[in-house]
Amino acid sequence: MPPAARAFSRRDTVLFVSCIVVAFAAIQLPERVRDPFASTLRRSVLAPLVALQSNAEQSRRSWLTREQREAQRDSIALRAMALDATLADNNRLRKILGLGESLKWGFVPAEVLQGRGVGEEYTVTLSAGSRAGIVPFSPVVAPEGLVGMVKSVDPTMSIAIAWAHPDFRVSAMSVDSGAFGIVGAHLGNEPERYLLEMRGVTMRSNLKPGALIVSSGLGGTFPRGIPVGTVIAEMKTSELWARTYLLRPAVAPSDVSDVMVLLPARAKAGVQQIWKSGPYADSAVKAIAAAGDSLSRLQARKDSLAAPRDTSVRRDSVRAVTPPLVAPSPQHEAKPARTPSTTPAVPAPTTTTP
């Protein structure tokens, strides 16, 4: 063993023995002397060791509770994710209850059991059937508007076609009754497959983007006043005698979860006062556009007033653009207005030379 290592070993041994001797001596001290002495040692010599022990205990507790804290964090994250879905379902049920309160009678609430029907892609299965009074061709509605129509009925369930079905048709019109047409599914590619088309609109009817389209009540299946969709743009077709518009459906596919089925008596009575926001949607869009235009004009006027003025240039420009009526030239002096005379005009005599 090297001499340096042997010296360190002896020093450690001496320190260890000294600590043991001091410990036994401290134990033998009376309590009134031992406690102040121990407190003084903890605050001075043993302070780093006490802090090291405290940190070690805290690290040990953190390591032991790590899995528990991770489990709590994961559960909180899952609850937060479930909370969003719960809030969405709550809002959806509130809308359904509001629609039922507005209808008051003549409807059957139903739940969409599955997103697709048997063998068809654009059908839905409803949790109510003929025992609840549902018959074929009954309208299926949601708080946002029209969903579809019942196709077949069983005692406890029914199959309905949605607005994206190729066979779906509804007679529709604009909220101001200025344009009429037939709305059907837009048979395009994804994602335009879930849009609608309004066909057969007369050429004199011009619908602007954002205009609300509702059911017209013609045909006897769908009552008048159910929102169908909003105009996106006009489609270019080969028809020269009619217009075709592309519509965004009022009900999104993700909202088809809880619906209302209108019974024949309720559909016959009408639902024009149920969707009260429908008649005002088009005017709201126009008001928003007008507000945007007025805001831009106000900003332009403010910028023009804030710009520095050059009077010399302004005089020249005003003099250059002043029309003759403001500063008439001598050959264009204003003549006094003639007062009409009540006596008839006598023609001047003509003289002839022989």
Q: How much helicity do the residues have? A: 25-40%
Number of strands: 12
Low-confidence stretches: 277-289, 310-354
**Average pLDDT rating:** 76
Task: Please compute the radius of gyration using only Cα atoms.
Answer: 44 Å
**Helix-strand pattern, N to C?**
HHHHEEEEEEEEEEEEHHH
The dominant shape is: elongated
CATH class of the domain at 107-283, anyone?
Answer: Mainly Beta
Helix/strand class:
alpha+beta
CATH topology of the domain at 107-283: Thrombin, subunit H
Describe the largest sheet. Answer: 6 strands, antiparallel, barrel
Strand order, biggest sheet? 1-2-5-4-3-12
Q: Give the end-to-end Cα distance, rounded to a whole number of Å.
A: 169 Å
**Which band does the percent of strand residues land in?**
15-25%
CATH architecture classification name of the domain at 107-283: Beta Barrel
CATH superfamily of the domain at 107-283: Rod shape-determining protein MreC, domain 2
Question: In oligomeric terms, what are we looking at?
Answer: single chain
What is the number of helices? 7
Give a written overview of the molecule.
- With 354 residues, the chain is of the alpha+beta class.
- Helix content is 40%, strand content 21%.
- The protein contains 7 helices and 12 strands.
- It has a 6-stranded antiparallel beta barrel with strand order 1-2-5-4-3-12. It has a 6-stranded antiparallel β-barrel with strand order 6-7-8-11-10-9.
- The longest helix has 38 residues, at 66-103.
- It is elongated and about 110 Å long.
